[in-house]
Amino acid sequence: MTSATIATLVKMIESPPAPEQEQVVEHLREYLPDLQDEVRWDQLVQRTQPSLVEAARKARREKAAGQAAPLDSSRL
Questions:
Q1: Which among 37, 41, 61, 59 is positioned nearest to 49, based on CA atoms?
Q2: Mean pLDDT score across all residues of the chain
Q3: What is the pLDDT of residues 44-62, one digit of tens each?
Q4: How many angstroms separate the CA atoms of 33 and 12, rounded?
Q5: What residue ranges do the domains of the chain occupy?
Q6: In whole angstroms, what is the distance from residue 76 CA to residue 64 CA?
Q7: What is the rounded end-to-end Cα distance, in angstroms, of the chain?
Q8: How far apart are the C-alpha atoms of 76 and 74, rounded to whole Å?
Q9: What is the C-alpha separation between 68 and 30, in angstroms, rounded?
């Protein structure tokens, strides 16, 4: 995060009265872990995307070749 971005954020937090400032800070405390989880999820999906695409292609090839069978959930 750049210094300008941080300065803007500080100005935004400082603009309401103190009780509302505390609410904003509490909201950020709750929001940031969720945001970090989303970033990690996006990174994971991006890293595994080529493998997922290849697995889907393989499944389509096997299905087209008659090598696929319906999923039997009782065998899981």
A1: 41
A2: 94
A3: 999 999 999 999 999 999 9
A4: 20
A5: 28-61
A6: 24
A7: 46
A8: 6
A9: 45
Are 53 and 45 spatial neighbours (Cβ–Cβ below 8 Å)? no
Token pair, residue 39, equals 């970033």
Residues 6 and 12: their CA atoms lie apart, in Å, by: 10
16: pLDDT strictly greater than 90: yes
CA distance 66 to 3: 59
User: Residue ranges of the alpha helices (H) in the chain?
Assistant: 3-14, 18-64
Give me 6's structure tokens: 């941080």
Predicted confidence at residue 70, as pLDDT, reads: 87
The answer to whether the CB of 25 falls within 8 A of the CB of 13 is: yes
Residue 75: the pLDDT is: 87
